[in-house]
Amino acid sequence: MEFGTPLVEMKNISIAFGGVQAVDDVSVDLYPGEVVGLLGHNGAGKSTLIKILSGAYKADSGEICINGTSVTINSPRDARTNNIETIYQTLALADNLDAASNLFLGREITNSFGLVNDDAMEAETREIMARLNPNFKKFASPVSALSGGQRQSVAIARAVYFNAKILIMDEPTAALGVHETQMVAELIEELKRQGIGIFLISHDIQDVFKLCDRVSVMKNGQLVGTENVADVTEDDVLGMIILGKQPEKAA
Ligand SMILES: Nc1ncnc2c1ncn2[C@@H]1O[C@H](COP(=O)(O)OP(=O)(O)OP(=O)(O)O)[C@@H](O)[C@H]1O
Ligand SMILES: [Mg+2]
After folding, report:
1. Is ligand 1 within 6 A of the CB of residue 45?
2. Per-residue pLDDT reduced to its tens digit, 78-113
3. Do 149 and 181 have their domain in common?
4. Which protein residue's CA is at the shortest distance from atom 28 of ligand 1?
5. Domain holding 8: CATH number?
6. The ABC transporter domain covers which part of the protein (predicted)?
7. Ligand 1: which of 46, 48, 51 to mutate, most ligand atoms within 8 Å of CB?
8. Does the CB atom of residue 43 touch ligand 1 within 6 A?
9. Which pLDDT tens digit goes with each residue over 138-191?
10. Nearest bound ligand to CA 49?
11. N vs C: which end of the chain shows fewer Cβ within 10 Å?
12. How far does residue 48's CA lie from ligand 1's centre (Å)?
């Protein structure tokens, strides 16, 4: 699976909050078109690690490389400059606006008079949705009328439209039903085909086995290990999460 230069390398990342070592010398990486699952118990440090990549926190030590080049990410804006976008579980969508207005929120298309060009925005939204989620039809509805999975696809469309190469998804399927989870799974497959790399935080080990190429397991702020999903069983991964135990390798 892995060849060439990683999209993302987080090397020896540490951060403490007061006396709590939330992330302790953790290294993870991500290749184009790959989904890496981040697993671990509550408080293991998954969200904190990923917030360092999204610019919400600054690491006490360690290095981040994007496409092999060391970068400084001190703010969400720096993350965006590096084509990193985060899809939060609590999606930041404006409920009373439709899909197109949400997709372009803060970055509206304007005409030569400086007026917002709703038709152009809707046409662009229809085009990207036809690629990402062809079943999406609710272009005229406020997003408050959309299902969780449909809202998720609007958020993902926004990231992709603005050139995300690296997507961070923190518990994307946590609040979704079976059908909706399947919709997000199909979206993730499409994003992979486009060469986008995804860090996926999830507590659902079955989702992780279905969606991820590799898993990195954290426990008490430390990295237990990283494994190819194809090389381990669900029990192996549970052993890593619960006991911090390395899987036994077949000879
Ligand atoms: N802003 C903060 N201030 C103080 N402590 C924090 C802060 N953010 C996280 N922590 C602590 O850092 C540790 C790691 O938390 P983190 O949110 O990264 O865990 P997590 O693996 O994402 O857990 P969950 O599965 O519950 O989302 C925890 O002990 C948490 O209490
Ligand atoms: Mg978390």
Report:
1. yes
2. 999 999 998 875 567 888 899 999 899 888 999 888
3. no
4. 43
5. 3.40.50.300
6. 8-245
7. 48
8. yes
9. 999 998 888 877 888 888 888 888 888 999 998 877 767 777 788 888 889 989
10. 1
11. C
12. 6
**Residue spans of alpha helices (H) in the chain:** 46-53, 76-81, 99-103, 118-132, 148-161, 178-193, 205-211, 234-243
Is there a single domain that holds both residue 152 and residue 174? no
Q: Which amino acid is at 25?
A: D
- 170 and 78 in a single domain? The answer is yes
Secondary structure (3-state) at 150:
helix
pLDDT score at 34: 97
- Tell me, using a 6 A CB cutoff, whether residue 202 lines ligand 1: no
> How high is the pLDDT of residue 91?
64
- The Cα 201–Cα 73 span in angstroms is 20
22 touches ligand 1 (CB under 6 Å): yes
90 in any annotated domain: no
Report which bound ligand comes closest to the CA of 24: 1
The domain boundary, picked from 128, 163, 198, lies at: 163
Q: Does one domain contain both 237 and 131?
A: no
Number of helices and strands in the chain (H, E): 8, 10
- Read off the tokens for 50: 């990923």
Q: How many CB atoms lie within 10 A of CB 21?
A: 16
**Does the residue 91 lie in any domain?**
no
Q: Is residue 175 situated within a structural domain? A: yes
Residue 42 CA to ligand 2 center (angstroms) comes to 7
156: containing domain: 96-163
Q: What per-residue confidence (pLDDT) applies to 237?
A: 96
Q: Which two tokens stand for residue 73?
A: 């990410």
Ligand with an atom nearest the CA of residue 41: 1
Q: Does residue 205 sit within a domain?
A: yes
Distances (CA, A) of 87 to 91, 158, 184: 7, 10, 12
Cα 98 to chain centroid, rounded: 23
